[in-house]
């Protein structure tokens, strides 16, 4: 994926994103970080075709994503969003199977669709919940179902908005390890800077809709950059295996 100078904002309102550019390679994990309102979710919406840029382009495998048919784009890019519907009268298996819709040939799911659905359920440790109603699950369980649906979509690019929300510590670590092992291009927003430092190949930091850093974690997550993005005084202890971040209101 190559994002070339994209700008976006709602109609008759100031722009939220300003001249954003970056590239994403196969197998690379990019964490997007920044304060609330920095434009993280708005940027992701451009990448999974929810909203078109006002200017610039999103190029996927050499073609503009917005010039592809929707069904073709859905075979390439899958998304997991923060919002989780709770009123689905569907089972976990039925929701995960929705990820196969862009690939279906004919009226109903084929043998491969069923096999991919089952594999996604097992991969996200949901086999024992496959026939449970989605609305009866906990927030963390619902989040894992939505990730499984994205995996069933068999994409080449996976876009996730705060995927660790609602997950306990173990499932956070398991999910991020899984994402690293998929071999896909992955873009995800993360509030936890330690998780971003540990699992991302690159960290892109937004401040008021502009990129202020795009580099490996040890170069992007500096005290000065974090202070600019989050308006807090920051200290980083890199003496251990993972960086330890401490923050203070700079009054």
TrEMBL record:
The keyword Cell cycle does not apply. The keyword Protease does not apply. SUPFAM superfamilies: P-loop containing nucleoside triphosphate hydrolases (SSF52540). Residues 1-233 form the ABC transporter domain. Keywords: ATP-binding, Nucleotide-binding. InterPro entries: AAA+_ATPase (IPR003593), ABC_transporter-like_ATP-bd (IPR003439), ABC_transporter-like_CS (IPR017871), P-loop_NTPase (IPR027417). GO terms for molecular function: ATP binding. PROSITE patterns: ABC_TRANSPORTER_1 (PS00211), ABC_TRANSPORTER_2 (PS50893). SMART domains: AAA. CDD domains: ABC_Iron-Siderophores_B12_Hemin. PANTHER family: ABC TRANSPORTER ATP-BINDING PROTEIN, HEMIN IMPORT ATP-BINDING PROTEIN HMUV. This is ABC transporter ATP-binding protein.
């Amino acid at each position: 994926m190559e994002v070339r100078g994209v700008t976006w904002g709602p109609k008759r309102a100031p722009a939220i994103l300003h001249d954003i550019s970056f590239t994403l390679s196969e197998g690379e994990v990019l964490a997007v970080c920044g304060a609330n309102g920095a434009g993280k979710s708005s940027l992701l919406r451009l990448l999974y075709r929810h909203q078109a840029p006002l200017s610039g382009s999103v190029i996927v495998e050499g073609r503009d994503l917005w010039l592809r048919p929707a069904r073709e784009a859905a075979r390439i890019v899958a998304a997991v969003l923060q919002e989780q519907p709770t009123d689905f009268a569907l089972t976990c298996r039925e929701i995960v199977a929705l990820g196969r819709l862009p690939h279906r040939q004919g009226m109903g799911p084929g043998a491969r669709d069923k096999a991919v659905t089952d594999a996604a359920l097992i991969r996200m440790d949901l086999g024992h919940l496959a026939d449970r109603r989605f609305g009866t699950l906990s927030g963390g369980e619902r989040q894992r179902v939505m990730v499984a649906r994205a995996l069933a979509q068999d994409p080449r690019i996976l876009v996730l908005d705060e995927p660790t929300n609602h997950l306990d510590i173990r499932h956070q670590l398991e999910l991020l390890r899984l994402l690293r092992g998929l071999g896909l291009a992955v873009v995800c927003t993360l509030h936890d800077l330690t998780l971003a430092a540990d699992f991302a190949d690159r960290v892109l930091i937004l401040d008021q809709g502009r990129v202020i850093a795009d580099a490996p974690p040890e170069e992007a997550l500096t005290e000065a950059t974090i202070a600019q993005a989050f308006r807090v005084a920051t200290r980083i202890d890199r003496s251990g295996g993972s960086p330890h971040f401490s923050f203070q209101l700079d009054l």
